[in-house]
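Supplementary Methods. Inverse-folding protocol.

Structures were first reduced to a discrete structure-token string of length 279. This string, shown here, constituted the complete conditioning input.
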């Protein structure tokens, strides 16, 4: 246990996400010193302070480069990234697409509350069209980002959506994402009870259904997954949309074939010549 307690708003969906993550790590018997958590900016990014693993609180939109660096430096670690929808689908979108196509073995959890909660209620990239916020008093005019469709088309090898109001299902998704070998995205529907009065717990409970309960649904079918990714409204699918097995970035780097970089002996390498060129 960490000494500090979360200061999220009472009833925030982040409490469920934190519980699901902790339970998944525990049930997988992962030792704290073998897990690295990189967080960005947003209410959920404070998670780095409240889970007893190696963790760092990075810059807005920059958690994935840090997570990727940690994985490449020591690919024996279980590396998890966590940030908000504004962090990942806004300023961090460029890093998002390139980390996916490289298929680096990282689990990326996006706390998607469809609003900028930490900065007090501005529209985010996933805010619904027409939604009135502090930055869009006459309603959002842009089409929202579809993170599931974007991830499938960008090379992610595990694409899922969870709901903060279904802890058991979310815990299962997180465990499956950790076990998956490759880049895993879990977009988490996380109600912001303070600033988003539309996408509430009740709103989602009346709409979500589990796609993996459908006997005929195959997560290996990218075309079917892409079709489901566009389903939003009266029915909202949650679960694993798509999953495939593909070589990960770490397997393709010859420098990592022997052992993690963190454990390689570099004491015999003379860096003086290269340093003289740049210093």
């Amino acid at each position: 246990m960490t000494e500090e307690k979360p200061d999220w708003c009472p009833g925030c969906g982040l409490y469920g996400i934190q519980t699901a993550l902790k339970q998944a790590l525990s049930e997988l018997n992962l030792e704290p010193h073998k897990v690295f958590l990189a967080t960005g900016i947003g209410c959920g990014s404070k998670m780095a302070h409240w889970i007893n693993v190696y963790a760092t609180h990075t810059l807005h939109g920059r958690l994935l480069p840090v997570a990727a660096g940690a994985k490449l430096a020591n690919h024996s670690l279980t590396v998890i990234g966590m940030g908000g929808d504004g962090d990942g689908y806004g300023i961090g979108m460029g890093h998002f697409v390139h980390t996916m196509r490289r298929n680096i073995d990282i689990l990326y959890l996006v706390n998607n509350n469809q609003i900028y909660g930490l900065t007090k209620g501005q529209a985010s990239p996933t805010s619904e069209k027409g939604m009135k916020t502090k930055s869009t008093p006459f309603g959002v005019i842009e089409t929202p980002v579809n993170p599931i469709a974007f991830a499938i088309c960008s090379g992610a090898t595990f694409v899922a959506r969870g709901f903060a109001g279904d802890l058991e299902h979310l815990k299962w998704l997180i465990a499956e994402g950790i076990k998956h070998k490759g880049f895993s995205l879990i977009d988490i529907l996380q109600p912001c009870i303070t600033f988003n009065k539309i996408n509430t717990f009740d709103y989602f409970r009346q709409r979500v259904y589990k796609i993996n309960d459908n006997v005929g649904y195959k997560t290996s079918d990218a075309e079917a997954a892409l079709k489901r990714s566009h389903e939003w409204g009266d029915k909202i699918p949650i679960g694993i949309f798509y999953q495939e097995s593909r070589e990960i970035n770490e397997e393709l780097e010859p420098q990592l074939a022997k052992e993690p970089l963190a454990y390689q002996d570099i004491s015999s390498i003379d860096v003086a010549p290269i340093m003289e060129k740049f210093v």
